[in-house]
């Protein structure tokens, strides 16, 4: 839900700035949603690279090379997030992010089933870890809409 909060906050701030300062390209929700997604994926990617050990617990024990997988996913989030901002790459980046979100889904299931704390110091309550699963398709739909609608 923190990711969704970031998407909405950034998108709405850009939209508001567009209207307040009469910037036409910031008055388009789809554009602002693209920028919000790019910013959030790049930020999350950097978090994966800056503190990978804080995320390996989500896959340790059932996938090999947990640290390397966290680092690879961080690099991919950064590259694909930036790709959302490049018109010629936007579609490829969107599909890459959707696939990445699908691949990360089992880790979120593992966190919920094993009653582990959510990443980033977010609540470890079952309602929160299970609710995170419901938002994964929302993020996929957001990315798809940003790129293809």
UniProtKB/TrEMBL annotation:
Domain of life according to the entry: Bacteria
Q: How does it sit in the membrane?
A: Multi-pass membrane protein
Which residues constitute the signal peptide according to the record? none
UniProt keyword annotations, A-Z: Membrane, Transmembrane, Transmembrane helix
TM stretches of this protein: 33-50, 62-86, 92-113
Coiled-coil region: none
Protein's cellular compartments: Membrane
Q: Which PANTHER family match?
A: DOXX FAMILY MEMBRANE PROTEIN, MEMBRANE PROTEIN-RELATED
The name on file for this protein is: DoxX family protein
Give the lineage: Bacteria, Pseudomonadati, Bacteroidota, Chitinophagia, Chitinophagales
